[in-house]
Amino acid sequence: MRLRDTRYRRCGRRADHLVRRQQAELQRIEQRLRTHYPSTYTNTLNGITFVDGVDPDENRVLISYPTPEQLPREVIDRRFR
Known about the structure:
The chain is of the alpha+beta class and 81 residues long. It has one helix and three strands. It has one helix at 2-36; strands at residues 41-45, 48-54, 60-65.
């Protein structure tokens, strides 16, 4: 029983670390989009972060975190309705 608890705790720590890394990556992407398009929009709604911007080729980019595969949802940010 004790070994099992330790294993789950370690997995939890890894998951927390992975989430922090992914959130940091999302912030880096947002900053890079903002250099090309100062009006890049970011919002968090119900635990889901949306980033809407334009890439250097002037293509619209919409990123959500966590991804729909990670967190199935029916939430759509008000800006996109």
